[in-house]
């Protein structure tokens, strides 16, 4: 009996000991949990650095939808509007846009990214819509012309429908391509254009023309507030390596020692507007101003300074310090011979002035493409735009 008592006493003290140890372990566990939790929080708050964002009062803060906001122009517009303190929703199907262009905003309380095709209806609540969704470079919009038409027509109808339902103002990113291969020089907003409706560029040119028509039909019939910016050639950082337009082509060719391919041989003049993100991106700044201005009719946004394509190629060659040769290629069908915006209206209404010196804009863009090339295997990247989709055996338009 005595033995049993001793055993019981020992096991009793053991139980207390076990309980004590268990309590200590629990306390240590909770302490460690909180320690790591706060450590994580600290690390997260230091590692998540967003660009500086202004604080806007409830009254001034707008809920803004940017379609095509992960693209080249759209992502710079996203930066501007986010930094101005608005709530921005980017809608993109990532056809030519990239998440990388807006990744620095992911997780920010004012930012949302939606993977959505504007050809499908969208139901969200917004105060303003910047409608940019559309492939913009010829190789991209010619790749799938039917999709380009759908994006510019059905997509624009959907966005105008949304604007009507929620009472939002819509700004359409239109283009100088609505003037086609112009017979008037320079082109002012009154000029109706000269477009081949069945040519290879028609899916984009006519698509944008119909998109403009739709905007003004919704304005007249339904009272939707619309703004139309006719954007001329723009370049800068975040352009896609496969963009296929002259600036990115020349820079990539020069950086890699490839021949600079000049297409226009007869009238080698085209417009260029330089666009760069450091000084608030000219185009973006004025696009945003256009949204707020009181005049709904279209406005040209572009650079009236003319440069021959050849001189332009030589300038890029010298800035890159490249040994590339210049190679002439035959003209592409329906390529505009000459383009120059008449910007008197923009100057009067928006105080627009394309003030960034061309070389400065080009240097920034060259730096951007050099960095992009570093991400490629062997620092080599030959732009290879996809060939236009065409079913075999079908009649081809020649
Ligand atoms: N960059 C220029 O020189 C220029 C000149 C004139 C007009 N614009 C217009 O400005 C806008 C933006 O041009 P960009 O140069 O940034 O082109 P971009 O190709 O870089 O951007 C277009 C964006 O729209 C998205 N998109 C395309 N189809 C879509 C769809 N069906 N649904 C949702 N998203 C879709 C793409 O993924 C991309 O992110 C376009 O509307 C273009 O027509 C641009």
- The CATH class designation of the domain at 63-238 and 273-303 and 336-355 is Alpha Beta
| Small molecules in complex | nicotinamide-adenine-dinucleotide
The overall pLDDT, averaged over residues, is: 85
Unreliable spans:
268-280
EC number: 4.1.1.35
Transmembrane segments: 20-46
Catalytic activity: UDP-alpha-D-glucuronate + H(+) = UDP-alpha-D-xylose + CO2
Pathway: Nucleotide-sugar biosynthesis; UDP-alpha-D-xylose biosynthesis; UDP-alpha-D-xylose from UDP-alpha-D-glucuronate: step 1/1
What can you tell me about this protein's structure?
With 398 residues, the protein is of the alpha/beta class. It has a domain at 63-238 and 273-303 and 336-355: Rossmann fold. Helix content is 41%, strand content 13%. The chain has helices at residues 2-47, 72-83, 138-143, 145-166, 202-222, 246-255, 282-292, 309-320, 344-350, 358-374, and strands at 63-67, 87-92, 111-115, 128-131, 169-175, 226-231, 234-235, 260-262, 269-271, 273-274, 299-301, 306-308, 326-328. The protein has a seven-stranded parallel β-sheet with strand order 3-2-1-4-5-6-11, with helices on both faces. It has a two-stranded parallel sheet with strand order 7-10. It has a two-stranded parallel ribbon with strand order 8-13. It starts with a helix and ends in a 24-residue tail after the last helix. Mean pLDDT is 85; it is low at 268-280. The chain binds nicotinamide-adenine-dinucleotide. Nicotinamide-adenine-dinucleotide (NAD) is lined by residues 67-68, 70-74, 92-97, 117-119, 132-136, 151, 155, 173, 175, 231, 233-234. It is an enzyme of class 4 (lyase).
